[in-house]
Design a protein that fits this description.
The structure is a homodimer. By secondary structure, chain A is an alpha/beta fold. Chain A folds into two domains: 2-135 and 298-311, Rossmann fold (3-Layer(aba) Sandwich), CATH 3.40.50.720; 140-294, 2-Layer Sandwich (Dihydrodipicolinate Reductase, domain 2), CATH 3.30.360. Chain A is built from twelve helices and twelve strands. In chain A, the strands form two sheets. A six-stranded mixed beta sheet of chain A has the order 3-2-1-4-5-6, sandwiched between helices. Chain A has a six-stranded mixed beta sheet with strand order 8-10-9-7-11-12. In chain A, strand 2 and strand 3 form a beta hairpin. In chain A, helix 1 packs across helix 12 and helix 7 crosses helix 8 (176-186). The radius of gyration of chain A is 20 Å and the shape is globular. The model of chain A has no long low-confidence stretch (mean pLDDT 95). At the A-B interface, helix 6, strand 12 and helix 12 of A face helix 6, strand 12 and helix 12 of B. Strand 12 (288-294) of chain A pairs antiparallel with strand 12 of chain B, so a sheet runs across the interface. Chains A, B: The active site is at residue 205. Chains A, B: Residues 138-309 form the Homoserine dehydrogenase catalytic domain. Chains A, B: It is an enzyme of class 1 (oxidoreductase). Chains A, B: Keywords: NADP, Oxidoreductase.
């Protein structure tokens, strides 16, 4: 398939880098200031070098990305809430011109799900969004294969930054501020870590899961969300005396979405460590299925995008 | 899709039972003595009641299954080694007449993989076999989505009977013979438990994994296999003093297949309990992906068969 990648952050760049290995061709990549576009396949290495050097990926007008001949739009611009723009309009444009869309951007899928499905229904193209939930972990394709009706709930840890912080607080007896600074030094937490530590990032993912299970009906404002910023080190010590620890756990079902810190058994499945994520799917006929792995990272998330591309039908 | 199910054991019956829920129709089901065949869809409930009452699923000649109009042959007869008959011939017949095949029977996939792929290449039909490895756990579709080339190895616990026995031996300090008898009473081990306890069943699954990773080249005789029958209770006690336990672990890579009892950390991912299974996939770009869940059971394995049916292209 020919990929047009909008967004040249970690994920967009990794998709461009790995596309060839999966048998696909990159015909365009754009960031906010420029684009590299070539119907015969762009020079990926050159584009990535320019970006690494602090420039834009290319000198063309970003708008020309939509005018090129492509099969799949890869939407990898930063997640935005509410109207989910400019990502939503990118998706809309691609679907209205009968292209496929694969999203890594959570915004449109969490906040305007029914509108996306309506656009898809009127298009020859399909939308897929494995990369929006759990990075490399194939959560959505597992639900799709079971059929959503056979899955009653999804629960787990879907934010690696918060999980890393809680793991380190418990392991070292350090307080939140101290471990957050450590996480930022390591690049595990961003300079502005708000969405990770206040539960918003995890909530967006569980909203997406609820939308998949219920075929729509949820957006971020429907979720009950509590973050990890107020957890004192003493809470983790107390938990440990009881063979427990604390993790930021989310739950999604057709009834709603909740994210918040929970006590979990210290050695149980939900007590994943470091930046690892886990999703437990409760199913009607197959008991509980657990998927764990790396929930974030450029290459990790790119593998989810490229898995989705591999599951698209020929246009 | 219209399903013709050959084999009316736990898996075949569960596939018939759940097919409607997944949007498919059962046009035939056969056991060794009879068949129920109806191009407009059989009376599934009636066939299952007859079987439950000790009779055959139907009064038609089992051979008539292949003469009916169907889309997918579901091969759910008992696993046989070596020439993998009669399962292999069932698959061959379906592919030669341009039908799809979904296998729950491990024999043909472990023992005659390259021949299956050659038959598939000459057919309008495709073969899928998720149900042969890890029951409800979507191992093979995860590898398929990552692309097999991106997966370097698969490791884990793929036999629930052996895992149950080791879990109970460790938990209760009982010896092997005692726990095996308990497992048989519970229906977790068969009257003849040989393939489960000597590692053959697990080895077949890891041979299938190696065939998928390497696109053929392996059969059961290539695997190095050791079972659990000789593990004394004292070995588990000794392991526990060191924070470890023993599990029947298999490993598959392009270099080969090994199955045998291994010491694993007591609280680690590989120390799944009871009849649960786990597969860890090592990937090039996405680190380690863990999938765990119920590895056996009629409904559980049927969900894997029906997931496969859902991924088949229209004929």
């Amino acid at each position: 398939m020919r990929l047009a990648i909008v967004g040249a952050g970690d994920v967009g760049r990794s998709v461009a880098d790995l596309a060839g290995e999966y048998g696909h061709e990159v015909v365009a990549i754009a960031d906010s200031s420029g684009a590299s576009v070539d119907a015969d396949g762009i020079d990926v290495e050159g584009a990535l070098e320019r970006k690494a050097g602090g420039e834009s990926v290319g000198t063309a007008d970003p708008a020309t990305l939509f005018e090129t001949d492509y099969d799949v739009l890869v939407e990898a611009t930063p997640t935005t809430l509410g109207d989910a723009e400019p990502g939503f309009t990118h998706v809309e444009r691609a679907l209205e011109t009968d292209h496929h869309v694969v999203l890594a951007n959570k915004g449109p899928v969490a906040e305007r799900y029914e509108e996306l499905r309506a656009l898809e229904a009127d298009s020859a193209g399909s939308i897929r969004f494995e990369a929006t939930v759990g990075g490399a972990i194939p959560v959505l394709s597992t639900i799709e294969d079971c059929t959503p009706q056979a899955v009653t709930a999804a629960r787990g840890v879907l934010n690696g930054t918060a999980n890393f912080i809680l793991t380190r607080m418990a392991a070292e007896g350090l307080d939140y501020e101290h471990v957050l600074a450590e996480a930022q030094d390591l690049g595990v937490a961003e300079a502005d870590p708000t969405f990770d530590v206040d539960g918003t990032d995890a909530a967006l993912k569980f909203v997406i899961l609820a939308n998949v299970l219920a075929d729509g009906g949820f957006s971020l404002e429907d979720a009950t969300v509590e973050g990890i910023q107020d957890i004192p080190g003493s809470a983790l010590e107390l938990a440990a005396e009881d063979g427990r620890t604390i993790r930021l756990i989310g739950e999604a079902s057709r009834d709603g979405v909740r994210v918040g810190p929970r006590l979990v058994p210290e050695n149980g499945a939900l007590a994943v460590t470091g930046t690892r994520n886990i999703v437990q799917l409760e199913t009607k006929h197959a008991g509980s299925l657990h998927n764990s792995g790396r929930g974030a990272g450029g290459p990790e998330t790119a593998t989810a995008v490229l898995s989705d591309v591999g599951r698209l039908p020929e246009l």
